[in-house]
């Protein structure tokens, strides 16, 4: 039986994906269209050079709209586990509502010692990870194993993972079977049943053919936090959220300040520019703004980027919660910037701008540069009618661009080459 047939046989169950840097930046709307309700995203791992973060984790976790979201760590069974756990939890922070997963695989194909040649130390280090996780979170992680490891026994015939059966099991088995073998466990919580689903269909970056699919057997055992209603991405623009405090842009200076303090508008403009097809990053955008009248001290000049993106025109800056102007902009598949109170808990109305990228039901969906997350407006700032203080919109008509104009645009965008 092919994986596609198996997937159809499981169509009445909850389906998760799992992804890492190899999948690129996910277009989550495609997963939603296929009925996917949850995902596990690789946050970190450990290897020959120590702990490392998956470099796509922040982008994918920030933009993921699924109802159920979790993270996993690829375990180095040759090294102590407590430090690996600390690194994993620091990387994950508060993201997601599913318990973290400890991914243990025999990695001898990459030059490591075989797991069964050192399983005494490997199990000790894994238990260190588990104990540290419990110490810091108050709950257990889950354990990812293939069926070979779930059934592996020691020289006296006991399961080597017998001390971990209190952990929810995420089992990998790609054979076309109804229920995967679980060895020491009486049941599984999550079953990775294929690694060869159609990656493009499920939102992979172009060029990556495959993606993992998982069947949920015990959802309750995976959930650790209150589950929000999922965001319907049907009418949400595919714009990856960016954070103004991220290490790659936070300390970029402009005027008398830095992006991390006052760069919300600039980061919103960067998100919009990338959505419109301009290959630019924060540093190059700031350089261009400085050289082309885009900044007046610390303030952004709204019309300035008409000269950066041909076909883009600044419409207007409207006072108050101009929801009709937001809706009109979204109807043209254009995001818009709205002024909110950075901290609604204080009496002062702080200047902060977020990017409205669509609607889920009656809720406006925003990318917030405060922390680079995709969220419902009301979940963070309350009623948009009363808590939006200004709305800025743009119009975009894609022009015919000549080769000379393309070269000029590249020249202007890459000021470091001048």
Structural overview:
This protein is an alpha/beta fold. The protein has two domains: 3-230, Glycosidases (TIM Barrel, Alpha-Beta Barrel), CATH 3.20.20.80; 237-415, Cathepsin B, Chain A (Alpha-Beta Complex), CATH 3.90.70. The protein has helices spanning 3-9, 28-33, 57-63, 81-92, 119-137, 147-151, 259-262, 264-275, 282-291, 323-331, 377-381, 384-387, 403-413; strands at 15-19, 38-47, 50-53, 68-74, 101-103, 142-146, 169-172, 190-198, 210-216, 253-254, 257-258, 295-296, 299-300, 312-319, 336-340, 352-360, 363-368, 373-376, 390-396. An eight-stranded mixed barrel has the order 1-2-4-5-6-7-8-9. Strand 6 (142-146), helix 6 and strand 7 (169-172) form a beta-alpha-beta unit. Helix 4 packs across helix 5 (119-137). The protein starts with a helix and ends in a 5-residue tail after the last helix. The model is unreliable at 1-12 (pLDDT under 50).
In brief:
Helix content is 27%, strand content 24%.
Give the helix/strand layout:
Blueprint: H1 3-9, E1 15-19, H2 28-33, E2 38-47, E3 50-53, H3 57-63, E4 68-74, H4 81-92, E5 101-103, H5 119-137, E6 142-146, H6 147-151, E7 169-172, E8 190-198, E9 210-216, E10 253-254, E11 257-258, H7 259-262, H8 264-275, H9 282-291, E12 295-296, E13 299-300, E14 312-319, H10 323-331, E15 336-340, E16 352-360, E17 363-368, E18 373-376, H11 377-381, H12 384-387, E19 390-396, H13 403-413
Parallel strand pairs: 1-2, 2-4, 4-5, 5-6, 6-7, 7-8
Antiparallel strand pairs: 1-9, 2-3, 8-9, 10-11, 12-13, 14-19, 15-16, 15-19, 16-17, 17-18
């Amino acid at each position: 039986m092919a994986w596609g047939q198996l997937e159809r046989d499981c169509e009445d169950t909850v389906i998760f994906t799992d992804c890492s840097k190899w999948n690129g930046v996910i277009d989550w709307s495609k997963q939603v269209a296929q009925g996917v309700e949850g995902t596990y995203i690789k946050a970190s791992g450990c290897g020959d050079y120590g702990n490392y973060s998956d470099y796509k984790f922040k982008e994918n976790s920030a933009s993921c709209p699924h109802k159920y979201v979790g993270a996993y760590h690829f375990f180095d069974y040759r090294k102590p586990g407590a430090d690996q756990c600390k690194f994993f939890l620091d990387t994950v922070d508060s993201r997601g509502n599913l318990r973290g997963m400890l991914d243990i695989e025999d990695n001898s194909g990459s030059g490591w010692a075989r797991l069964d040649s050192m399983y005494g130390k490997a199990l000790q280090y894994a238990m260190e990870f588990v104990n540290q996780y419990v110490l810091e979170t108050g709950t257990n992680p889950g354990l990812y194993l293939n069926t070979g490891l779930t059934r592996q026994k020691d020289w006296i015939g006991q399961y080597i993972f017998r001390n971990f059966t209190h952990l929810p099991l995420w089992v990998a088995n790609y054979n076309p079977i109804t229920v995967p073998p679980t060895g020491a466990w009486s049941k599984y919580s999550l079953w990775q049943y294929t690694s060869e689903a159609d990656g493009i269909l499920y939102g992979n970056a172009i060029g990556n053919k495959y993606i993992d699919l998982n069947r949920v057997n015990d959802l309750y055992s995976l959930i650790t936090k209150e589950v929000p209603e999922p965001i319907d991405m049907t009418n949400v623009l595919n714009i990856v959220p960016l954070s103004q405090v991220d290490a790659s842009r936070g300390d970029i200076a402009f005027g008398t300040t830095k992006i991390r303090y006052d760069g919300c508008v600039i980061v919103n403009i960067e998100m919009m520019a990338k959505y419109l097809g301009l290959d630019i990053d924060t540093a190059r955008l700031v350089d261009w703004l400085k050289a082309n009248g885009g900044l007046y001290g610390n303030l952004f000049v709204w019309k300035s980027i008409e000269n950066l993106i041909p076909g883009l025109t600044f419409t207007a800056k409207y006072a108050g919660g101009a929801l009709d102007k937001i809706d009109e902009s979204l109807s043209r598949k254009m995001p818009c910037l709205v002024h909110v109170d950075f901290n609604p808990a204080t009496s002062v109305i702080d200047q902060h701008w977020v990017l409205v990228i669509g609607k889920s039901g009656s809720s406006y969906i925003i990318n917030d540069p405060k922390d680079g997350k995709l969220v419902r407006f009301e979940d963070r700032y309350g009623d948009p009618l009363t808590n939006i203080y200004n709305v800025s919109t743009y119009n975009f008509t894609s022009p015919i661009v000549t080769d000379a104009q393309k070269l000029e645009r590249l020249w202007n965008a890459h000021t470091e080459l001048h």
